[in-house]
Amino acid sequence: MSDSVPQRLWLEWAKQIQAISQAGLAYSKDMYDLERFEMLRELSVDILARYTEVETEKIKSLFAGESGYATPKVDVRGAVFQDDRILLVKERIDGAWALPGGWADIGLSPKEVVVKEVKEEAGLAVVPVRLLAVLDKKFHEHPPEAFHIYKMFILCEITGGQAEAGMETLEVGFFGRYELPPLSVGRNTSKQIERLFDLRHGTEVWLD
């Protein structure tokens, strides 16, 4: 592969190849077409293994569980404020900080997901107030990912509970706009969190 082509462009091509191969494997009936779509999937795995930090076998296992028409995955994060400070949790997996949240669950609405995640990761009961942002991860300064991901940020108000770590978190804290700790940049960036401080006071929904 030419090093003159930007890394993220290779990643986007690989994801598109994966999506085409996944749909082809799901809907094609011709054995020769199925073989070609499987070759495309292998090609996408090789590219993703080169340009991400995910091992080839793990990428294969991830894609093996995907079938049908490929769609973006959805990550839902809660923006919870207290005394002009935002709630962050220290992730057990990498020791860095993030807004509480995670993958959208089948059968749950985004509001239900954010309530569940904030409770599980930070010990607080919250009520969703409004949507602040829907972002495409590829437009932001996140590490390379194997999947195409949309991120939803939902403003929440605390209604009860006690701030405490959960099974997936080590610590819980509230931080000012200009005193953010080391962030888990795969989950959120400093620019995103800083923008949430502004968005909570208005009616704008950040789409990017």
TrEMBL record:
InterPro entries: NUDIX_hydrolase-like_dom_sf, NUDIX_hydrolase_dom, UDP-X_N
Every Nudix hydrolase domain range: 71-197
Entry keyword set: Hydrolase
Domain of life: Bacteria
GO molecular function terms noted in the UniProt entry: hydrolase activity
CDD domains on file: NUDIX_CDP-Chase_like
Family from the record: Belongs to the Nudix hydrolase family.
Name of the protein: NUDIX hydrolase
Protein's organism: Paenibacillus mellifer
Lineage: Bacteria, Bacillati, Bacillota, Bacilli, Bacillales
